[in-house]
Write a structure and sequence with these properties.
Blueprint lengths: L4 E7 L5 H10 L6 E7 L6 H6 L6 E4 L6 H11 L4 E4 L4 E3 L3 H11 L5 E10 L2 E3 L13 H4 L10 E4 L1 H6 L10 H10 L5 E12 L13 H14 L4 H24 L3 H13 L5
Parallel strand pairs: 1-2, 1-4, 2-3, 6-9
Antiparallel strand pairs: 4-8, 5-9, 6-7, 6-8
């Protein structure tokens, strides 16, 4: 019999945090799930540790590091559940997370995806999220344009969603979640469950979002994809162009200030390409 939920944990050299993430899943009060850990080429002994869980955890190994998008996609393609939930290996789930989201999707077939609020931990201390990370329900495409407001660890979605919008973009080293949520939110409403059901642990040196300078470079790529690949309504297109202008101006000014004229002029050219006034 297929499980109700497939839980996918992508990981790369995250011992002992990945163990804690696994334990937070196994401690849930909802039991009809499969747990898949995708080891993305770790060299710290992750696979050996995960194998000790036996049949409670399915381990899939990449021969070499391919990035978080490829790891999530591998998990999706090997999963069997009606619903799919992700947990980044440096995050944790609060008990009840699976049960609450499964109940919501069971009772609200009009939604393909729901996500929850979160607790933030930075360098071991609880902090309050900034206002720009506020959460929203419904048609939230405009709210998703400035930055990623949905944490992958907080989301649960129906399997059919991937048939409609595709998998994660493996060409993006960061901001792959930003790209994915834009593709979802431009087509479907999203429901926010106002309960803090995940713990986001940040501030550690291997955090992906801290390792690439100027994440807006990759957000601009995601915006260009929307403009070229999606039949946007006129209002949606204007929203995308407005956000692209802000991001290109910031990057262009930043590069020129640092004496990198080639990159600075490049983002001016991106604006010209889409008829944006510089």
């Amino acid at each position: 019999m297929k499980p109700k939920v497939s839980v996918i944990i992508p990981t790369y050299n995250r011992l002992p945090m990945v163990q804690e993430a696994v334990e937070s899943v196994l401690a849930q009060d909802f039991e009809d799930f499969e747990l898949i850990v995708v080891d993305d080429g770790s060299t710290d002994g992750t696979a050996e540790v995960i194998r000790k869980y036996g049949r409670r955890v399915r381990l899939i190994e990449h021969a070499h590091n391919r990035g978080v998008s490829a790891a999530r996609n591998t998990g999706i393609l090997h999963s069997r559940g009606k619903y799919i939930a992700f947990l980044d290996s440096d995050d944790l789930w609060v008990k009840g997370k699976l049960r609450i989201q499964v109940n919501f999707l069971d009772e609200n077939p009009q939604y393909l995806l729901c996500y929850t609020d979160e607790i933030w931990i930075r360098e071991g201390k609880r902090v309050n999220p900034m206002k720009r990370h506020s959460k929203y329900s419904g048609w939230i495409f405009e709210k998703c344009l400035p930055l990623c407001i949905i944490s992958p660890s907080s989301a649960m979605m129906r399997r059919v969603l991937f048939q409609k919008v595709g998998l994660f973009d493996e060409a993006l080293p960061v901001c792959e979640d930003y790209d994915f949520w834009l593709r979802v939110s431009v087509r479907f409403p999203i429901f926010f469950i106002n309960k803090k059901l995940i713990i986001k642990r940040g501030g550690h040196p291997d955090q992906l979002s801290h390792r690439s300078w100027g994440n807006d470079r990759y957000r601009i790529i995601a915006l260009e994809k929307l403009l070229s690949e999606y039949p946007l309504k006129e209002q949606e297109r204007e929203m995308v162009l407005s956000e692209m202008k802000k991001k290109c101006q910031i990057l262009s000014k930043g590069f020129l200030k640092r004496g990198n004229e080639l990159e600075g002029r490049y983002y001016q050219e991106v604006m010209r390409r889409y008829g944006i006034e510089i």
